[in-house]
Each structure stands twice: as structure tokens, then as C-alpha cells.
Q: What sequence folds into this?
């Protein structure tokens, strides 16, 4: 019978990191935290240490030749996780710089063993490791070489039942470093610089025996410490059974006649794209969608990347936000990622038990993202829509669309196929006036109107009127009046001349 | 900013001098305080960091107590407490209390500037406990 050992997992105390690690850190593992200077290794180590250390599970933090301990203590205590009451109680700092100078790796190892035997810590941190390597290379064979040092350290710490972290600076990750082989876990931190923007990213290169989330995960360091934006888990397509919840199958859009055009409203759980040129009324349509939800006792969430919704442009929306019926996600951080926005959206949706989500607009969203995420915008957007669908919400996204009168386009991202429904708004010229028209282009699995309807915007919002049955060529932007006798058409503009 | 704790060190030492405690006894007491500092901090921040902070404190205190300059002079990576004691014994009890007290106070303040009051308090807990409790014990003895 196969009866595998149960490996306990430690919760790192870093938001999002446990998910990326595939369920926390395996107890007694031997881990390497690597990355260039300034990428947050020491911060990560401290944050985990203060979160993990308890009277039953104490920690020792060895400083070798890296950052002088006095400075490390000075700067690390700026973070909220730093608890000076823990020092000399559950957390012990031990400087090995003098030992390194006096006796190299051999003496460092001896001191580590002495301290570990003396205090029996459950957590051991060695900072920093690159200095150990360089120094061992310089001193050659006189001292214990690096590979032996790491192997012995790894073996000793596991036997002493200590979860161990080596903190090191590595510039060349392709290097076949023996340390990488010995380590059970390899967490790589990076700073990705593109144009003027810097984004911090974390990768779990290795974590023995558990399903880590592959790829680069954005993280941010602020006063609270490190926060990893783990991608939302998107389980296999599990359609939410709305019939079981007893909720109405279709949602009202809050605009007269639009529900009719949609064959009775937007089916619950659908995602809709509202595409149109600047000023055509997309945001107003989105606000009406949320207001209609509030009228029916539903809550919503809006991710606003256009104007700040509290502006006078949309007093109804501002009021919904103020009264807590609509949650606002309005992040303008320079290192913004889709994962972070998704995390914020999902937490707002859960907090408010929201059923309606608006993203206004995708164009603003793309601009708000750090440049490094823009090339993957479509992939990430598709993942985000899928993740929000599993929350059971109905989504409305707006998309800026440059008016092109030569073809019918829905969105600059090819997002059209990702959504279940599309409404297009356009400007047309009729009788020397700029008029607006709207049409339902797509509504998956449902009958819908195929009419091009004129609409206007007044104090009460969007007013949809009739079709322009006496005009043709509307999509070309400059329609012509149909000749009642079916003879040669003349341009509407020409008729006035 | 002068912390209450660090001010109490000077007051305690001056008080002991005025009570007629002799120079050798005061010197022993001060050296043992520095030894406790060395023992408490060396494992955490390393020998040379402690020695540097010690020298910096003597330097700052030497502005008012020039004889402390001798201790500051010269590059050392360890605290030479034997030399310090010799220097102390060349002074009167009052001057030992004032000068050495000032140096200890400076040490406390420099560390507070670097790592903050609460962490300094925690790191030097055992030092001040011994230093400030000692006179009371002596009196009762």
C-alpha cells in the first residue's frame, strides 16, 4: 500500500503567494529566493518570517555579507509586517559577517549549525547568498566550496526540521548552478522594465511535489509589504444554473425599447460589448444598465477607466456608488495588471453580491495597464471574462471604436468573439446633422432585432426612436434617401442643394 | 530628540558620583555596561558595527568631554574596553559620570535614529535593566 508522508504546508503571509506556490510552502523545504538587487528578496523573506514565526516555531535570520544588518533593520521596520516585539523572542537575527571574514564558508556553516542546535528554530533564513558564492570563489579551495556548503546546509536543515530560505542575487538564471539542483523551491523575483514603466514579477521556477501556478505573476510592494496578484483560477466551464436561483432569465437594460431589440433583455450571465465612437453614449448606456439593476434591487460593480464616475456627467451613477449599490474599481497604479483589476473586481463582486459588472472602457483599461501587459491584452481579457463568468455576473464592456464608414467593426481588440452580445453605436450624417444610431449586432442563442435605430441623448438618458426606413447606406455614414420610385438614388445632402 | 531612557543613564551616573562612589567602581560599572551592549548587539549586527557605533558615540560625547577623543582616535574593528577603562581612570568621578554617561546616551540615541525607539528599547533591554537597577541594589546592600 502506498502511504505517502503528509507534508504540512505553511502559509507565507504574503497575499496571493500561497496560491502561486500551489497551496503554501512545504514544511522543511529548502528554498532559494533569487533575483537582482532591489527586487524585494529581503522584504519577501522578512514578511514570510514575521508571518510564520511563533513561540513554537521560531526563526533565525542569518546575515552574511549582504546588506549590513543595522540598515536592514532600519528599512525593514518601515513595513507594517515588521513586529519589533518578535525580535529576540520568536525572531532572532544573527550576523555572520565576522565569521565569513575570519573563516569563510566553513566557519559560517559551523556557526549556523551552532545557532540552529542552540535555538532549534523551525525557520532559517540566510541572507545573502551571492556574497557567499563570490567569496568562496575568490578564496578557492582553502575553504569549503559552495556546492558542499549548500548540500550540507540543505541536509542539516532538513534533518533539523527547519524550513530554510537562502536569499541570493543571481543575474544569470540560465547558469547551471548546483544550488538550483539542491533547492526544493526556487522563487525568482524580477523587475520588468518597459518604456518608463517598471513592473515587479515573481516566478516559482520550482517547488517540489506541488502544482505551482506557472508563469510570471505581478506583485507590488507597498507599506503593508508584498502583494502577489495571482491569476484567478478559472475552473472548467461550469455554467451557472440561473434557473435554480429563481432569478429572472433576462436583465433589463434600463433603456426603453432596447430590451425589445434584445428580444426581452440581456440574458443573465452574458457578456456584452457596447462599441462606438467617442461621445456616442456608451458610458450612458452602461450607467443605465447599472441603474436598472439597482432599481430591481441588484448590486453592481464598475471598473472605470474613463472619466471618474463621480463627475456630474453621471449623477445617477455617482449616487449609486455613494449609497453602496455599485462598487467602484478605479485603480490608476502605474504598474497595473489585468490580474490585479480582476482581483479587485472579484472581491467587489463578492463583497456586494453583485450581479452586474461594467468595464468602462476597454480602451481606457488598455491604456491604464503598464506597457508590459499590453501585448497580451486579448489573452488576458479573455481569461478575465471567463473568470467573471464563473462568478455568475452579467457583464457590460464598452469599447471605443473609431468610426469607419468603409467597414463594420466592433472592437479594436478582436474582442467581439469573446462576448455573447454586441451593440454598435455609430454617427451618421442626415440633413446636415450628426445623428446617432444603434443596432444589436449579436446576441448568442437568442432572437434579436436587426434594426438600425436612431437614438438621442437627453436629460433622461438614451431615447431610442424609429428606424430610418427612408434612408439607405446608413453604415456608410452618409446615407442616401431611397427613391420612392426605385430609380436613381441621390445623396441626401445633394437634395438640399 | 532626547529619550527619557537615555537621559536617565546620565542622571543615574551623576547621582552615583555625587553619592561618593569612587572612580574605579564607576569605571567598572560603565565598562560592564559596554560589555553588555557588546554581548547583546554583536550577534545581531556584527562586531564591527557595534565597534563603529561605540566610536561614533564617543566622538559625539567628546565635544563636551574632550578626553573621550582619545578613545575615538584610531581605526579599530573591535571595542577596546581595556583602553577605555584606562582613560576613565584618568578622570574624576564626576567627569567619569558626565562623560561616560554622555557616551552611553549618545549610543542610545544614534541607535534610536537608525532603527527607531521601540526596536532600540528591545535590543538594549538587558543593558538598561542592569544599568538602571544597579544603584538601587547597591544602596540596599
A:
Amino acid at each position: 500500500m502506498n502511504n505517502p508522508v503528509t507534508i504540512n504546508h505553511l502559509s507565507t503571509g504574503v497575499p496571493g503567494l500561497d496560491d502561486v506556490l500551489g497551496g503554501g510552502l512545504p514544511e522543511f523545504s529548502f528554498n532559494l529566493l533569487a533575483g537582482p538587487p532591489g527586487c524585494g528578496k529581503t522584504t519577501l523573506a522578512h514578511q514570510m518570517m514575521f508571518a510564520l514565526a511563533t513561540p513554537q516555531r521560531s526563526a533565525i535570520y542569518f546575515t552574511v555579507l549582504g546588506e549590513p544588518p543595522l540598515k536592514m533593520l532600519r528599512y525593514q521596520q518601515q513595513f507594517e509586517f515588521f513586529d519589533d516585539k518578535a525580535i529576540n523572542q520568536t525572531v532572532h537575527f544573527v550576523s555572520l559577517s565576522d565569521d565569513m571574514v575570519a573563516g569563510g564558508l566553513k566557519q559560517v556553516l559551523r556557526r549556523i549549525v551552532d545557532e540552529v542546535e542552540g535555538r532549534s528554530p523551525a525557520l532559517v533564513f540566510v541572507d545573502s547568498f551571492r556574497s557567499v558564492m563570490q567569496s568562496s570563489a575568490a578564496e578557492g579551495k582553502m575553504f569549503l566550496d559552495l556546492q558542499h556548503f549548500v548540500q550540507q546546509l540543505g541536509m542539516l536543515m532538513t534533518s533539523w526540521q527547519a524550513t530554510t530560505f537562502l536569499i541570493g542575487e543571481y543575474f544569470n538564471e540560465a547558469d547551471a548552478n548546483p544550488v538550483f539542483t539542491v533547492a526544493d523551491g526556487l522563487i525568482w523575483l524580477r523587475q520588468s522594465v518597459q518604456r518608463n514603466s517598471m513592473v515587479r514579477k515573481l516566478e516559482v521556477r520550482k517547488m517540489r511535489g506541488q502544482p505551482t501556478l506557472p508563469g510570471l505573476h505581478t506583485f507590488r510592494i507597498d507599506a503593508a509589504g508584498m502583494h502577489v496578484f495571482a491569476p484567478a483560477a478559472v475552473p472548467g466551464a461550469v455554467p451557472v444554473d440561473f434557473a435554480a436561483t429563481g432569478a429572472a432569465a433576462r436583465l433589463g437594460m434600463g433603456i426603453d425599447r432596447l430590451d425589445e431589440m434584445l428580444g426581452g433583455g440581456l440574458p443573465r450571465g452574458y457578456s456584452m460589448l457596447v462599441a462606438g465612437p467617442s461621445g456616442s453614449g456608451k458610458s450612458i448606456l452602461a450607467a443605465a444598465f447599472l441603474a436598472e439593476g439597482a432599481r430591481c434591487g441588484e448590486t453592481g460593480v464598475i471598473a472605470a477607466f474613463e472619466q471618474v464616475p463621480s463627475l456630474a456627467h453621471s449623477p445617477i451613477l455617482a449616487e449609486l456608488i455613494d449609497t453602496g449599490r455599485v462598487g467602484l474599481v478605479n485603480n490608476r497604479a502605474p504598474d497595473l495588471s489585468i490580474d490585479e483589476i480582476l482581483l479587485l473586481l472579484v472581491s467587489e463582486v463578492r463583497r456586494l453580491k453583485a450581479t452586474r459588472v461594467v468595464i468602462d472602457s476597454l480602451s481606457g483599461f488598455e491604456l491604464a495597464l503598464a506597457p508590459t501587459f499590453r501585448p497580451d491584452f486579448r489573452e488576458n481579457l479573455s481569461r478575465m471574462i471567463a473568470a467573471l463568468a464563473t462568478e455568475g455576473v452579467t457583464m457590460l464592456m464598452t469599447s471605443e471604436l473609431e468610426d469607419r464608414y468603409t467597414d463594420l467593426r466592433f472592437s479594436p481588440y478582436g474582442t467581439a468573439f469573446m462576448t455573447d452580445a454586441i451593440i454598435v453605436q455609430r454617427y451618421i450624417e442626415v440633413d446636415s446633422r450628426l445623428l446617432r444610431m444603434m443596432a444589436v449586432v449579436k446576441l448568442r442563442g437568442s432572437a434579436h432585432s436587426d434594426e438600425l435605430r436612431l437614438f438621442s441623448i437627453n436629460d433622461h438618458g438614451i431615447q431610442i426612436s424609429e428606424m430610418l426606413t427612408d434612408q439607405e447606406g446608413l453604415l456608410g455614414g452618409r446615407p442616401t434617401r431611397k427613391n420612392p420610385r426605385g430609380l436613381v438614388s441621390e445623396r441626401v445632402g445633394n437634395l438640399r442643394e | 530628540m532626547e529619550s527619557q531612557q537615555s537621559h536617565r543613564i546620565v542622571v543615574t551616573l551623576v547621582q552615583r558620583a555625587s553619592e561618593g562612589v569612587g572612580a574605579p567602581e564607576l569605571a567598572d560599572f560603565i565598562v560592564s555596561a559596554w560589555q553588555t551592549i557588546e554581548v547583546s548587539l554583536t550577534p545581531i549586527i556584527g562586531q564591527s558595527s557595534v565597534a563603529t557605533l561605540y566610536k561614533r558615540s564617543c566622538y559625539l560625547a567628546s565635544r563636551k568631554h574632550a578626553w573621550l577623543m582619545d578613545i575615538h582616535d584610531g581605526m579599530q574593528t573591535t571595542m577596546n574596553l581595556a583602553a577605555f577603562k584606562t582613560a576613565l581612570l584618568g578622570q574624576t568621578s564626576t567627569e567619569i559620570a558626565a562623560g561616560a554617561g554622555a557616551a552611553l546616551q549618545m549610543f542610545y540615541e544614534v541607535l534610536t535614529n537608525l532603527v527607531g525607539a521601540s526596536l532600540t528599547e528591545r535590543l538594549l533591554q538587558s543593558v538598561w535593566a542592569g544599568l538602571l537597577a544597579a544603584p538601587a541594589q547597591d544602596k540596599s546592600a
